[in-house]
Amino acid sequence: MQLNFKWGFGGIFAKNYPLYTLLRNILFKAPPEKVHYFSMNTLKLATATGLGDTLLKNMFQYKPTDLQKNIMGLHFPNPVGLGAGFDKNAAYLHELEALGFGFVEIGTVTPKPQAGNDLPRLFRLPADKALINRMGFNNEGVEAIKARLVNWNSRGKYKGDLIIGGNIGKNKLTPNELAYQDYAICFEALHEQVDYFVVNVSSPNTPGLRALQEKDALTKIFAELQHINAGKATTKPILLKIAPDLNQAQLDDIIDLSLSMQLSGLVATNTTLDRSKLSPSSAQLSEAIGLGGLSGQPLLQKSTEIVQYIHQQTNGQIPIIASGGIFKGDDAMEKIKAGASLVQVWTGFVYEGPSIVKNICKYLSEKK
């Protein structure tokens, strides 16, 4: 019997398996963050043996050569990546590589460890295939994450061709005027361990962070990072992750900055504060949940419009990694047609499960 597996924060399911409905309902009643770690640790156990690892790769990897991408001086085995916030501490790289991701963005990483915001801080809106999170850059700190990446990179050819991005941020208690120092600490520490960097100033869950999207603040951060980068034997691409809630003037400032400072690319977009696209039932639930960034299907249109605007205003000069509402192959194709070079999933992974990369890649390959 052929099984159609469906995993995510909700757990590990087989659609045609008798326990599928029961298991899904049980796990979706559990706190999402706990179920996330349960699911990923179960996956880690499954890949711990050579047989299990091979079986998973055979089930979920899809590697057509026509989807390989050379962008920003890097070779991506396929254009489908996992957005930052899922593997914050670079703890599941092998498992995510087994599921076929072309790249994984770890983090957001801060100089010092921080616990993040109080629990609960991750919420499902299943009627709209959406999530609300207010995680607050919870991570183990740059030194612990660096040590894990050193171990990953020491595997040489055995670590595969997975591209690793480092999403970096500032600690909550660091004042904005000193934020550039936090980004510099993370950049310096991870420079030899990741393939590219993403400066995250667009999370809505760290007080005052989005103020760093203003042109003067960004200029200070990127001037410092580019100075460090220029002193290295090999430079690394530096990208900026932006919010979907920017107005046109703010977007134009970011485009001007990206061109003038020769940024390697943009990640569009982070989560949104806008709840206007939610269905009535989800809107009522989100009001009870309170603060947090919204991701998933309600973000699809807005994030695509921003990708298209940036692409048109820059005549395609700035590579764009598109994120926001990608669940299916046609969602990814929509982003690519709008001007994206690569796409990232996150909430889609939660709802669609481990076959999401394979399904998107097959769709893109067939449509080429």
Describe this structure in words.
- By secondary structure, the protein is of the alpha/beta class.
- It has 2 domains: 1-60, no CATH class; 69-367, TIM Barrel, CATH 3.20.20.
- Helices cover 40% and strands 17% of the residues.
- The strands form 4 sheets. It has an 8-stranded parallel β-barrel with strand order 5-6-9-10-11-12-14-15, surrounded by 4 helices. A 3-stranded antiparallel β-sheet has the order 7-8-13, covered by helices on one side.
- Strand 1 (5-8) and strand 2 (11-14) form a beta hairpin.
- Helix 10 (300-313) runs parallel beside helix 11 (329-338).
- Residues 1-21 have low confidence and may be disordered.
Large-scale geometry: globular
Structural class: alpha/beta
Question: In the CATH hierarchy, what is the architecture of the largest domain at level 2?
Answer: Alpha-Beta Barrel
Return the string of H and E elements: EEHHHEEEHEEEHEHEHEHEHEHEHEHH
Number of strands: 15
Q: CATH homologous superfamily of the largest domain? A: Aldolase class I
What's the N-to-C terminus distance? 31 Å
User: CATH first level of the largest domain: which class?
Assistant: Alpha Beta
The percent range for helix content is 25-40%
Number of helices: 13
* Average pLDDT taken over every residue: 92
Stretches with pLDDT under 50, minimum 5 residues? 1-21
Strand neighbour order, sheet with most strands: 5-6-9-10-11-12-14-15
Radius of gyration: 19 Å
